[in-house]
Amino acid sequence: MSESADRRIRNDEEDEFGTQLETWRLRMEGALAARLPEAEVVPARLHEAIRYSVLGGGKRIRPALVFATAHAVGLTEDEVEAAACAIELVHVYSLVHDDLPAMDNDDLRRGRPTCHKAYDEATALLVGDALQPLAFQLLAQDPKLPASPAVRLRLIDMLAQAIGTLGMAGGQAIDLAVQGKQLDIGQVEDMHARKTGAVIRASVLMAAECAPSLDPNLYGALSRFANAVGLAFQIQDDLLDVTGDASLLGKATGADSERAKPTHPAVIGIPASQQRVRLLHNQAIHALLPFGERAESLRALAHWLLSRRH
């Protein structure tokens, strides 16, 4: 096959998967909107700010991982939709809090004013405070998730660990503490495995948990996939902060350098960071071999995530 023909096939596959991503994104817009309090319900300003933050765009990457994993393990999207919503709610809560002046002090998120700019800092704090328990309420009560109390408890436990001090919150604390300091690459990767990787890992494994009869070897393969993709996703984010286009990203670039954050590009340089992404991508794809064609959506999603420009 000629190089040009091979390129056309890849482009066609990417276009087809782009359509799938858009389908999942639209599904999530409706699913999230249906599970949020209406803006007119008291306290109206808080509910309005919640809907502003949650329904303000975004690629819905973590829910896409939930749905793609569901396909790989033989589940329908209906069976994992509530888990996808729960993960996206805690992700949005983390963004609202990260944007605050006490943290990253960002003015733009997804091309719009951040929550504390559109409303105020106190409201932004309460938005995060409200979204986190709503996520756990969904895992406890949504009728379409597995009925087994053991599975429900496991889902709650997995999400709690992913966003706690050993996961997202701990990673953010380390990130704030090390600005302006020098870390080795192992320390940087540990921080990123917590800050970003833990929730991405939960996105994959919570979907797998909804299939209790899944072979433990396949569960382990998904775990390896999630670890590789989670780290590579953060490295790609760091690279985009250096090389990306702010108009495509929907936020300012260069923020990591301004805050003297120890990122992969800062510690090992851009070429080595790009090579690390490629290596992790290969590890992720290799981990999916036992699934065969059932994991095609996960493979396509990994490729899209790690070659994206925004």
| General shape | globular
**Radius of gyration based on Cα positions:** 19 Å
Q: What is the rounded distance between the termini?
A: 31 Å
* CATH topological fold name: Farnesyl Diphosphate Synthase
The DSSP helix count reads: 15
The named CATH superfamily: Farnesyl Diphosphate Synthase
Number of domains: 1
Number of strands: 2
SS-derived structural category:
mainly alpha
* Name given to the CATH architecture: Orthogonal Bundle
How would you write the strand order of the largest sheet? 1-2
Q: What's the CATH first level?
A: Mainly Alpha
H/E element order:
HHHHEEHHHHHHHHHHH
Fraction of helical residues: over 70%
In what range is the share of β-strand residues?
A: under 5%
